[in-house]
UniProtKB/TrEMBL annotation:
The chain crosses the membrane at residues 12-32, 60-80, 86-103, 115-136, 196-229, 236-253, 329-349, 356-375. The keyword Membrane applies. Signal peptide: none annotated. It holds the Pfam family Wzy_C. GO terms for cellular component: membrane. InterPro entries: O-antigen_ligase-rel_domated, WaaL-like. Its main location: membrane. It is a multi-pass membrane protein. This is Putative polymerase of teichuronic acid repeating units, TuaE. It is found in: Membrane. Residues 198-338 form the O-antigen ligase-related domain. PANTHER family: O-ANTIGEN LIGASE (PTHR37422:SF17), TEICHURONIC ACID BIOSYNTHESIS PROTEIN TUAE (PTHR37422).
Length: 399
């Protein structure tokens, strides 16, 4: 290897690490019709220096489906229903495509061991800073959690609950999505102290989000993980350790600064009264929109404007990825996206025989969370996808 090649490899490592790390700092952005996030800036600067060294090869099947979905999203704007809103999201889709292929062309130059080190370092830094930002937030309000929808640094006071948002997002539910990859990666790599620490910190942060959808996704992914692979003795020890911590926390709950059990009871008992934070109404409206425009939908990023035009009292994003795709891209877009998701699960299953266990629970947890979030164009999700490509290539799996 020449000196120049060595420098290019080192630059690739630094670039990937900075991109992964920047994903955890989503709250630092500039709004220009859409949010220009830190990862976009890092990506743009890095692309200037690495564009000549990117390596490309044949697309895997799930990548072909992903591109097809993106193309359907872009061409759905040809209905010209709400051109300004649609143009903004076309730009977002093009940025995501650039992000995916720049990362793809860089990751293929790096070893799996190097990539895993970057997942570990970026995740530990990101989760640690989010927890510190949350603690600073609850200290700023003197541990008095009155009000609703009040953002204080890394904490959201939501119906008297101090919910962790950290530095990844201002939405606790989105925060869980951003740390899902790191959570399950550390869960399956508890052979290092930093991963044990990362697992404990991430589990604590997820609990402090008080995210009902996030809990369901993480728990289902964790239960699935217990039944795949081997190391049953280690898994039993982990489960017992978590149970002991929960029992101790329950016993001393009244002495804790924040009583998680009381907050959890309040969050889940309110589902009947708040309709899942209004999601029942949003989902009903989305389904009605789909029935009116079943084939091609109303077009990318048209939900808010269409809801206002229809006189709907609750004009917000649908908070359900699948219903949002159905209403905005119709059955054509939904079938393409659903097929894409199935192939991600299929490829993750194939990796299990190579002792790569974390992808399957990651995608199961993400797909469950998507029932409560509109994240079909989320950058952390596509980091998981491009990492899946790299592992599939390593083990010669044609996903």
């Amino acid at each position: 290897m020449t000196l120049q090649d060595n420098r290019q490899w080192k630059w690739s490592e630094i670039f990937v690490l900075l991109v992964m790390l920047s994903l955890y700092f989503g709250i630092f952005n500039i709004y220009v019709g859409f949010s220009v996030k830190l990862y976009m800036i890092v990506l743009g600067i890095g692309a200037i220096f690495s564009i000549k060294t990117l390596a490309f090869d044949k697309l895997l099947f799930f990548e072909t489906l992903m591109i097809a979905f993106f193309m359907i999203s872009i061409f759905s704007a040809l209905q010209f229903r709400y051109p300004a809103e649609q143009l903004r999201f076309i730009v977002v889709v093009l940025i995501l495509l650039s992000y995916y292929f720049i990362m793809r062309g860089t990751l293929v130059r790096l070893s799996i061991k190097k990539i895993e080190t970057m997942i570990e370092i970026s995740g530990l830094i990101g989760i640690s800073i989010s927890l510190v930002y949350y603690v600073l937030g609850i200290m700023q309000v003197n541990m008095v959690f009155k009000g609703n929808g009040i953002q204080v640094l890394g904490a959201l006071i939501d119906r008297q609950a101090p919910r962790l948002t950290g530095v990844a997002s201002t939405d606790p539910n989105i925060f869980v999505l951003f740390v899902t990859l790191y959570f399950f990666y550390t869960f399956t790599h508890l052979n290092k102290f930093r991963n044990i620490l990362g697992f404990i910190l991430t589990l604590s942060a997820i609990v402090l989000t008080f995210s009902r959808g996030g809990y369901v996704g993480i728990v289902l992914g964790a239960v699935l993980l217990l039944f795949i692979g081997k190391n049953y003795g280690k898994k039993i020890k982990i489960v017992m350790g978590v149970c002991i911590i929960v029992i101790i926390a329950y016993y001393f709950q009244n002495q804790l600064p924040i009583n998680p059990f009381e907050q959890l009871e309040n969050r889940f008992s309110s589902i009947g009264s708040d309709g899942g934070s209004g999601r029942n109404v949003l989902w009903a409206n989305a389904w009605h929109t789909f029935t009116q425009h079943p084939l091609l939908g109303i077009g990318i990023n048209s939900t808010l404007s269409y809801s206002l035009d229809q006189g709907e009292l609750l004009a917000r994003y649908i908070h359900n990825t699948y219903l949002e795709i159905l209403s905005e891209l119709g059955i054509v877009g939904f079938i393409t996206y659903f097929s894409f998701c199935i192939m991600l699960l299929y490829t993750s299953l194939k990796l299990i025989k190579h002792k790569v266990y974390f992808f399957l629970p990651v995608f199961v947890a993400l797909f469950v969370q998507m029932f409560f979030l509109s994240v079909e164009y989320n950058e952390m999700f596509y980091l998981c996808v491009v990492l899946l490509y790299r592992y599939a290539k390593e083990y010669k799996i044609n996903g």
